[in-house]
Amino acid sequence: MNAELPLSYFLLASAVLFSLGLGVVVVKRNAIVVLMGVELMLSAANLNLVAFSRHDPALQGQLFGLFVIVVAAAEAVVALAIVLLVYRHFRTVHLDEVSKLKH
Amino acid sequence: MIQAAFLFFLLFTIGSAVVVLVSRNVLYSAYSLLLTFLGLAALYVLAGADFVAVTQILVYVGGVLVLLVFGVMLTRKPDAERRSGPNVIRTEHVRTGVGLLVAGGVFALLFTAFQKGAFIRAEAEHFEPVDRLTTVPDLGIQLMTGYALPFEVAGVLLLAALIGAAYLSKVESEK
User: Fold this and answer.
1) What CATH number is attached to the domain comprising A81?
2) ipTM of the predicted structure?
């Protein structure tokens, strides 16, 4: 299996997914969808890590990937709590209308 | 055969990610993100990381995505009013075009970097291949011996995130 799937396939896949996640973060105006784009970018980088660790007997890339998943989950929780606070204050999560810093 | 499976899961994942980008409905984006995570788990399995794939499904699909859907539910606008104005459609299109330009630029950068990097040497003959049925025992041993410190620190990080999120979402009592 390792010889039939060259590394460049996985690198290309992770590059495409990372760019799509970045596109979601830049284009979309809903804060929750921006969070989805951030999670997509993290998963794409994780794919890159795991692909490089295919032939490693010590599985360092996979362990790194596990910790990336943990950190991404914790960050999604805190980011969602902040988005809920923003909604409570501005009554909207549309990023164009969340524009005033003053109370 | 393996390449056909890889191509199928790759197109599935990229197609779902494109739907996340294109769709105007937040819930449709959430559902396609679910499909993207499932496709990514399949790609992890094809890269030989079975435990990471199952963890991805458990944590991302079962945790993060459910949290995001709850967030969508709690932050709904009462009615979807269209913002009016003579320039709204044009500014939206300009913004989308600039965003896609940025994403395409980053992809071109990554593509050039991956092409010029000599990654063949990274996996050619540096490691002797280990034939294992599953990665779970090796990962478990590593987590308990060599990676015990990041393991404990990750626990502390999760505790901090839990306390922080609970404190942030506290309903303000009379003040």
Assistant:
1) 1.10.287.3510
2) 0.91
